[in-house]
From TrEMBL:
One of its GO terms (cellular component) is cytosol. It comes from the Bacteria. The lineage of its organism: Bacteria, Pseudomonadati, Pseudomonadota, Gammaproteobacteria, Oceanospirillales. InterPro entries: AlgH-like (IPR003774). Belongs to the UPF0301 (AlgH) family. This is UPF0301 protein SAMN05421848_1467.
């Protein structure tokens, strides 16, 4: 199950866990220590403008104040995770997640976004999801998740509520037609 970094996890229709039912998750990091991801299709009532107000950050130059903050997952709900285009080298506490994508958890990127100097494309999430080593591999084998390579189209150009369906479409799949039974014995 190596190589899931920079992929989407699509919750299979039978997944009933309230944290993951109907979710699309982006895998930021996947190695022998476990897996880190962000749910990308569950906008919160909180906007960037309200977040900047709570953090007392001047956002007078921000062009995206009405952008909803996403519910990134049930772990570290008080912590911000910014998935963005570009290189991780420009920001503190940042890792590369794909060829032209990075995940940053430091305040410097929020100040840059508020000041109109942030990355060209970004998603702001509160919270994340995580799996212990081998846990995600077992869940995929148990037909809980479907995977597909991530795309900028889904990440940055598709409204949050349509991301799951759009990602499934990249595989030519209609999730509502899928069975709970896996095709292995």
């Amino acid at each position: 199950m190596q190589g899931l970094r920079d992929h989407f996890l699509m919750a299979m229709p039978h997944l009933e866990d309230e944290n993951f039912a109907g979710s699309l998750t982006y895998i930021c990091d996947h190695d022998d220590n476990g897996t880190l991801g962000l749910k990308l299709n569950q906008p919160m009532e909180l906007t960037l403008e309200a977040l900047f107000e709570q953090l007392e950050i001047d956002a007078s130059e921000c062009q995206a104040l009405d952008t909803p903050v996403l519910n990134g997952g049930p772990v570290h709900r008080e912590r911000g995770f910014i998935l963005h285009s570009g290189s991780p080298e420009h920001w503190d506490s940042s890792i590369r997640t794909g060829e032209n994508r990075a995940l940053t958890t430091s305040m410097d990127i929020l100040h840059a976004i508020a000041g109109g100097r942030g990355p060209e494309q970004f998603l702001v999430c509160l919270g994340c999801v995580g799996w212990e080593p081998e846990q995600l591999a077992r869940e995929i084998k148990d037909n809980t998740w479907l995977t597909v390579e991530a795309s900028d189209e889904v990440l940055f150009h598709t409204p949050a509520p349509a991301r799951l369906e759009t990602a499934a479409g990249h595989l030519g799949v209609d999730l509502s037609l899928l069975s709970r039974e896996a095709g292995h014995g």
